[in-house]
């Protein structure tokens, strides 16, 4: 089980990652494409931290983690298929 210190550090990391989105979109150094790409990378890192620690997937058997990864992949495929069918 993770300690309160670990949860606090993860919380600080999540706040810093959320601040990154603001930085990407509010400074003229980044183009729109770079900002969207950077935001997606930061979001993937945040999802990993939240799922791993706050939803305790880090301490589950690997089979549960693989099942969650397959489910997330299927959601992405469904989203892409829905976006393709709309066009």
TrEMBL record:
Could you name the Gene Ontology cellular component terms for this entry? plasma membrane
- InterPro entries given for it? Cyt_c_oxidase_su4_prok
* Membrane-spanning segments: 7-27, 33-54, 66-86
Its membrane topology is listed as: Multi-pass membrane protein
**Alphabetical UniProt keywords:** Cell membrane, Membrane, Transmembrane, Transmembrane helix
Pfam families hit by this protein: COX4_pro
The lineage's top-level taxon is Archaea
Q: What is this protein called?
A: Cytochrome C oxidase subunit IV
Task: Quote the subcellular location field of this record.
Answer: Cell membrane
